[in-house]
From TrEMBL:
Catalytic activity: Exonucleolytic cleavage of poly(A) to 5'-AMP
Residues covered by region (Disordered): 523-595
Enzyme class: hydrolase
Domain R3H: 182-249
The protein's name: Poly(A)-specific ribonuclease PARN
This enzyme's EC code(s): 3.1.13.4
MF (Gene Ontology): metal ion binding; poly(A)-specific ribonuclease activity; RNA binding
Any one Pfam family match given in the protein's UniProt record, by short name: CAF1
Species, as recorded: Magallana gigas (Pacific oyster)
Family: Belongs to the CAF1 family.
Transmembrane parts of this sequence: none
Length: 595
């Protein structure tokens, strides 16, 4: 079901009902971009904390254009799931001068990709559902309540000026009107006077003007007309602000007018909260929220609809767990044995195709008539609601497959089943070779990296030079940091102890230290004492305590492990891993205890 600003209010009760009835929910998002800088990169040696900081820094300035929500409710009698997909277009339209005026980034490649998929950008910008974070909502409510208190304190029984906070000003002394505005203000006062003298129209709309002039109008009219009028700020079709003068006859009428104004302000704020209400409903339900490769989705959902992402990694984990108590990533399920052994690819579209066949057992899923009747093909990929829908299909298919391995077999596995718990509150980490997931509910897996070494070298060095340098220790995997530095990982981890004693004795132009020393910012004593050649001393020598530059351009392998090619076959630094090594590496990486 497509949901925009036009039908959001009427559809929201149906969304709430679907969430409350659901056994689990699936979400997906579409963004205005992925990485804020061309130098942004993720590394196979990132820790979960480092990956979070990279996403927070490199992705939080992008905007969410579309959010897909699909609820799944299991019918015990029919043994079927009922799916209700909602496709929300969202855009943070400011509702008043006091509300946040959002700035955001766009990435041309991301926009081009969405356009190629038929994405409707006009619908986003023109009909997108507004939203503000929960933090911003609290601040605006406090500001509004304070302003309402001021109105009660300073306004007379027959006169009030309920404009925005900056313009609602009361004064008792003479009004100092600048010379260039005197004629205009005098004309306004004359129009108000004529309006009050004549019977007929109840309202008088003054010409649009800027905030400063509106403030002068409020102050001057208040002083000259002690009773009988009520002023209120309005916005015309061209988004221009103007003042409307209303004839007031009694004190009760004035109070009623003020109550109407305050009610309208509250309604405007409720509209501004917008899509954040849906996130709040999901959070309050406590239902399992399922996504595919959802680390970035989670970061954006929290940052845009809840509160600014914390700098502290542990605070982020606590925040995520508080807002969404139960999360499951189907990318992690697909990359974990025993599912992994039967799935050649965990890309969402491929995963749908693979889990639709034996030995997987997708349940029958029906969609109510008032919702889009999706066909399971590629025509709707990257529509957020469709992606959320097929994520749910993949989740149920893999869950039922795991259930079939039990003794006795479980034909239909629901989200609260014991075999699902190992995947709960864990996020898949792309391209990290030795850490299977980010654990939102506990301590992360932090393996030993004693077999990893940081190397700095002359700019003219290529991959074959590093392969040759480490050839006594077997095959290696190179993680490039920039043109003059890289991490080198040994496949034969038992050779790690001899690397420093062997390589640091040579009189060469390179510098080497252990991974641990580099991460701790401590120079290795042996490498610090090692002499450098004259030709590299002036320009090539790195600073002794140079930290890792997370924004540096880098080659990032798309696989988890490599078998290094022969040096003469590769002169480019961007090496691709060997697929067979990748499989054996992942087999160990995602192995979990038997069900």
């Amino acid at each position: 079901m497509e949901v925009t600003r036009k039908n959001f209010s009427s559809v929201l009760p149906e969304v709430e009902k679907a969430i409350n009835e659901a056994d689990f929910l699936c979400v997906d998002t579409e963004f205005s971009g992925l990485h804020a800088s061309s130098s942004f990169h993720i590394s196979s040696l990132d820790t979960p904390e480092e990956r979070y900081h990279k996403l927070r820094k490199g992705s939080s300035d992008f905007l969410v254009f579309q959010v897909g929500l699909c609820t799944f409710c299991y019918n015990e009698e029919d043994k079927k799931y009922e799916a209700k997909p909602f496709n929300f277009y969202v855009f943070p339209k400011p509702y008043s001068r006091a509300a946040p005026d959002c700035r955001f980034l766009c990435q041309s490649s991301s926009i081009d990709f969405l356009a190629s998929q038929g994405f409707d950008f006009n619908k986003v910008f023109k009909e997108g559902i507004p939203f503000i974070t929960s933090t911003q909502e609290s601040e605006l409510r406090d500001l509004m309540e304070e302003r309402h208190k001021q109105y009660k304190q300073f306004s007379s029984p027959a006169f009030v000026t309920p404009d925005s906070g900056a313009e609602a000003v009361t004064t008792k002394g003479p009004i100092n009107v600048p010379e260039e505005h005197k004629d205009f203000i005098e004309g306004i006062c004359k129009s108000v006077e004529e309006f009050l003298e004549k019977d007929g129209e109840e309202n008088l709309s003054l010409p649009p003007c800027n905030g400063f002039v509106r403030k002068l109008i409020y102050q001057t009219v208040r002083q000259r007309f002690q009773s009988g009028v009520h002023l209120g700020a309005k916005t015309d079709e061209k988004k221009q602000r103007y003042i409307q003068v209303t004839r007031i006859k009694t004190e009760d009428e004035m109070k009623m007018k003020e109550q109407e104004k305050q009610s309208a302000e509250l309604a405007e704020l409720e509209e501004a909260v917008g899509f954040t209400k849906v996130i709040r409903l999901i959070s309050q339900s406590g239902k399992l929220m399922v996504g595919h490769n959802m680390f970035m989705d989670l970061v954006h959902l929290l940052n845009r609809f809840c509160s600014q992402l914390p700098e502290n990694y542990q605070e982020f984990k606590a925040m995520a767990k508080c807002v969404f108590p139960k999360i499951l990533d189907t990318k992690l399920m697909a990359n974990t044995a025993p599912c992994k052994d039967l799935l050649p690819s965990s890309v969402l579209g491929d995963l749908l195709n693979h889990t639709s066949c034996t030995p997987f057992k997708p349940p029958e899923i029906v969609i109510p008539e008032n919702f889009p009747q999706y066909k399971l093909d590629d025509s709707n990929l990257h529509e957020a609601a469709y992606d959320a829908y097929i994520t749910g299909i993949c989740f149920t298919a893999m869950s039922n497959f795991l259930g079939g391995l039990q003794n006795p077999p479980l034909p239909n596995v629901l989200p609260d089943a014991t075999i699902i718990k190992p995947f709960t509150n864990k996020l898949f980490l792309m391209r990290i070779s030795d850490i299977p997931y980010l654990d939102l509910a506990g301590d992360d897996v932090l393996p030993s990296r004693d077999h990893v070494f940081h190397v700095t070298f002359p700019k003219e060095w290529k991959a074959p030079d590093l392969y040759q340098l480490f050839s006594p220790f077997g095959n290696v995997y190179i993680t490039w940091l920039d043109d003059v530095s890289a991490f080198v990982s040994l496949y034969k981890k038992d050779q790690s102890a001899t690397v420093m004693s062997t390589l640091c004795k040579r009189d060469t132009r390179y510098k080497i230290m252990t991974y641990e020393l580099f991460k701790n910012g401590l120079p290795d004593k042996e490498s610090r004492k090692r002499p450098h050649s004259a030709e590299s001393t002036e320009e090539e020598e790195p600073k002794k305590k140079k930290p890792l530059n997370v924004d540096a351009p880098v080659f990032v392998s798309r696989s988890r492990s490599i078998t290094p090619p022969m040096p003469e076959e590769n002169e480019n630094k961007e090496e691709e891993p060997d697929s067979t090594s990748e499989q054996s590496s992942e087999q160990k990486l995602f192995e979990v205890p038997a069900w």
